[in-house]
Amino acid sequence: MRPMTVEAAHSLIPQVQGWNLVTEDGMMKLQRTWKVKTFMKGMEFFKLVADVAEAEGHHPDLHLVAWNNVKIEIWTHAVGGLTENDFILAAKINRLDLHQLLSRKVGE
Fold first, then answer.
1. pTM greater than 0.90
2. CA–CA separation, 95 and 107 (whole Å)
3. Is residue 61 classed as helix, strand or coil in its secondary structure?
C-alpha cells in the first residue's frame, strides 16, 4: 500500500470538517485541535477516542498540551502518510458526542 497523493487528500478533506492537512518531514497527516474544560475532561476525551481507535485497529497520536488543549494527528504509520482509513477514523471521531467535554467558545 502507498500513501495517497496530495490531490486525493485535498479531495477528501471537505468530508472531515474541522480537520486540517499538515505535512511534517515530508509526510501528510490529518490534524485537529480542541479545547477541553479541564485536564480530566481531556482524559475523558482521550478515552472516547481510544475506544473508537481500538475498535478500528487504527491508533492516532493523542496530545494534551497545557492541561486543556487536545490535538490529534492521524496518518498510517506503515505507509508513511495518509490512506482512506485515516479519513474514516477522523469521520468517526467527528461523530463522537464531545460537547460536554469542550470549553465553550466566545459568543456561545
1. yes
2. 23
3. strand
